Amino acid sequence: MSESDPKQRLKELEARIAAAKGAKEDKPHQEEHYSQAQQGWRMVIEMVSGLGIGFGIGYGLDAVFGTQPFLMVLFTLLGFAAGVNVMMRTAKEFQTKQLANQAGENERDRHGDGS
Q1: Three-state SS string across the chain, please?
Q2: What Cα–Cα distance (Å) separates residue 75 from each residue in 58, 80, 86, 87?
Q3: For the chain, first and last CA: distance in Å?
Q4: pLDDT tens digits for the chain (115 residues)?
Q5: How far apart are CA 66 and CA 9, in angstroms?
Q6: In 10 A of CB 77, how many CB atoms?
Q7: Which of left, alpha, beta for 25 (phi over 0: left; psi -120 to 50: alpha)?
Q8: Residue 68 and residue 113: Cα distance in Å, rounded?
Q9: pLDDT at position 32
């Protein structure tokens, strides 16, 4: 094989990769709806898991130290606060992604690149 053959094959491969990247289809609106529902369920699960973990730790410490509802209530409230904190970070992450997508769409519309 000659020296130019691998280079030619590499160029062909790069061209096929570029064509495959350019052939991306836009997601239908229905898939976005499911994506929003998945995001909502993720936030609910984060909240409930924070409550559950806090309750479990508090109940376990109450059983060990014999301080019946005191530590359970305290750690349940701490778990609630942790769940809200994680939920707010997740919401901020989703908001940042959504704003970036909107900015990209506006930029394409302004330059006429969109369909």
Answers
A1: CCCHHHHHHHHHHHHHHHHHHHCCCCCCHHHHHHHHHHHHHHHHHHHHHHHHHHHHHHHHHHHHHCCHHHHHHHHHHHHHHHHHHHHHHHHHHHHHHHHHHHHHHHHHHHHCCCC
A2: 5, 8, 16, 18
A3: 45
A4: 455 688 899 999 999 998 888 766 555 555 566 688 888 999 999 999 999 999 999 999 999 999 989 999 999 999 999 999 999 999 999 899 889 888 888 877 777 655 5
A5: 73
A6: 14
A7: beta
A8: 65
A9: 60
Angle of CA points 27, 30, 31, to nearest 5° = 50
74 in Cβ contact with 62 (< 8 Å): no
